[in-house]
Amino acid sequence: ANVSGHWNKRSRYDATLTEAGPPARYQLNTERKYIDGMNKKVRRWTYGRRDKNKQNKVILMVGETGTGKTTMINTMINYLLGVKFEDEEFYQITEEEKHEDQTKSQTSEITVYEVFVEENPTSLTIIDTPGYADTEGYEKDREISEYLIRLFSDEDGIYYIDAVCFVMKATQNRISGKELYIFHSVLSLFDIENNIVFVLTQSDGGPPRDALSAIKKAEIPCRKDEDNEPVYFLFNNRQKEKRTKRYKRVLKSAWEMGDESMNELFTPLDEKNRKSLKLTLNVLKERRRLEACVSNLMEQITEKELKTEELNQIQEVVRKNRDKIQKDENFEFIIKRVFKEKVLIENEWWWNSNATCCSTCEENCHLEGCWWATDPSKCGVMENNKCTVCSGKCPPSEHVKENKKYVKKTKDVTMTFYALKAMLHIFERPQNSFDKNCYMKESENETEIEEKLISDLEKIANEKFNLLHEAYMTIINLCEIALKADSAFTLRHLDFLIPRLKKEGKDEWMKNLEDLRKAGEEQNNKGALDHLMRFTGLKN
Fold first, then answer.
1. 7: pLDDT confidence band, cut at 50, 70 and 90?
2. In the list 16, 136, 235, 481, which could disulfide-bond 132, CB 3.0-4.6 Å?
3. Of 100-104, 466-470, 525-529, highest mean pLDDT
């Protein structure tokens, strides 16, 4: 059944004429506001009087720049309004935003379009995700996920989805790595395989063999029909083209094909296929916390490795100066020492511009995507009035949230032998008990300082192993609770962990992570993964 219903053309919509046509083009007058307040990244445009009693359909639109996604949104709106070809009208809810470089996306925010028509018992909500050109880069793509998380978490946001429409050209014979990456980035937020359908644009009405072949080759999860084929709908995207007598028949045929496809698209959108986002949001919050834990653990492991290098340098200095040490002579030497410094967060996207850091542990507890909370106590890594990330599991009062983070640096430092003893907590002995072997262990032929260095290195090695174990278990837990185990975040950190686990001889752990990486690469598709690697600097 047609979800829209029809009414007399003389029914006036609240719209402004923008082009005489035919067809006459109108811009719907909408009430506009930002859902996320000052951030102004998630906007809502509402046409008509909002009515929560109406049956509402929620559709998420995904597609790369240039596929015709914007035209499809307006086509859906005209279908809901009941506009027919004979009406010689076409209504737009979107606005064309001019850009100097037409290869770049014209949409930089998530836009939620809502349409309420008094004569129609059904309302429509369309979530328009930004589609970026290849030149925009990996970090720009991450905005989509951040915006959607914000949309789903807001009390005035979206709580369910009826369908995800992947928009692509009917003549497209391959799906680019960029498209796959965008698709997987969005789908990593949901568990809605059966709600994914394909909207094929610029179709001539014939079988879309090229597009179907590309979809199958890319192994994109989606709804299947009775023949186990991907569910798709054909559109021509010529609804607003100027009509002349010569081409009127062709344009009418294209319009009718779109009407038929739209009816097929809307008919199965009943509530039994609806996906609630409440569980999705809970999973996303836990995933965000675990990701913060993993990132912090990686930083701690790196710090242990740098400290090990520092102590190895000191060991070499001690070995070369044994004779001076036995005589308790003071001498100078230069080593690279590790230290932490708090610096401004620069050249980051807005969602990474603030961090929650522990002033006591001097650690970054929530570095990536820490933008929801207004103060540390509201940060997602806090539970039961303590931090779940930093080494000391300190309370929120010992944390700060600001546009600064801790970084590890090394610098050449001139030290003296006496300063080294103090650093290692080896203190002067009473003068009357001193002899040339007071720092020598006769049985092992090692200086007391060397013994202390060995002990410290063993302690750091044990601490590093414990951190590796914790990181491994956190990655496993992350994959168990994640909606998609092949998330870009997880794949990004496996290359860090796997060689270190191999060095520790943890073959079983290493194999488990290698299996995860292999599965992730297969699911995420090599093209999508290459796109990720290219923009994160993980691959030359």
1. very low
2. 136
3. 466-470
Measured N-to-C along each axis, helices 507-524 and 448-481 cross at an angle, to the nearest 10 degrees, of 40
- ω into 23 cis (within 30 of 0): yes
Residue with tokens 């083009």: 25
Q: Are 72 and 131 in contact (CB under 8 A)?
A: no
**Strand 163-169 to 160-161 pairing:** unpaired
Name the DSSP letter for residue 122.
E
* Residues 32 and 158 grouped into a single domain: yes
Positive/negative CA dihedral, 211, 163, 51, 123: positive
pLDDT given at position 261: 94
Q: With respect to residue 188, please indicate whether it lies within any of the assigned structural domains.
A: yes
Query: String of b and e for 256-281 (b: at least 16 CB within 10 Å)?
Result: ebbbebbeebbeebeeeebbebeebb
The whole-number average pLDDT for the span 33-44 is: 79
Q: Are 536 and 492 in contact (CB under 8 A)?
A: yes
Q: Which residue has the tokens 């496809």?
A: 261
Half-sphere CA count of 293, side-chain side, radius 13 A: 25
Instruction: Dump the DSSP string for 203-224.
Output: --SS--HHHHHHHHHHT----B
Select from 199, 176, 174, 196 the least CA-distant residue to 186: 196
Give the predicted TM-score (pTM) of the model. 0.69
Comparing CA positions, the residue from 361, 373, 353 lying closest to residue 398 is 361
Which of 456, 477, 495 represents a domain boundary (last residue)?
Answer: 456
pLDDT tens figures, 334-389: 999 999 999 999 877 667 888 999 999 999 999 887 777 788 998 989 999 999 99
What total number of domains does the chain contain? 2
- The answer to whether 326 touches 437, Cβ cutoff 8 Å, is yes
Give dist(CA 121, CA 43) in Å, integer.
25
Note the helical H segments in 399-506: 417-423, 448-481, 488-503
Tokens at residue 49, please? 């009087």
d(C-alpha 96, C-alpha 18), whole Å: 12
Residues 256, 129 share a domain: yes
Find the DSSP H helices in 22-108.
Answer: 69-81
pLDDT tens, residue by residue, 121-176: 889 999 998 765 444 444 555 566 667 777 887 777 788 889 999 999 999 998 88
Tell me phi and psi for residue 91, to 5 degrees.
-105, 140
Q: Is residue 52 part of a domain?
A: yes
Any residues with CB less than 8 A from the CB of 24 and at least 6 apart, and which? 17, 88, 89, 90
The reply to whether 167 and 262 lie within a common domain is yes
Structure tokens at 305: 């490795």
**For residues 67-81, b (16+ Cβ closer than 10 Å) or e, as one string?**
bbbbbbbbbbbbbbb
216/333 same-domain check:
no
Residue whose C-alpha is closest to residue 105's, from 33, 199, 178 = 178
Arithmetic mean of pLDDT, 280-291? 79
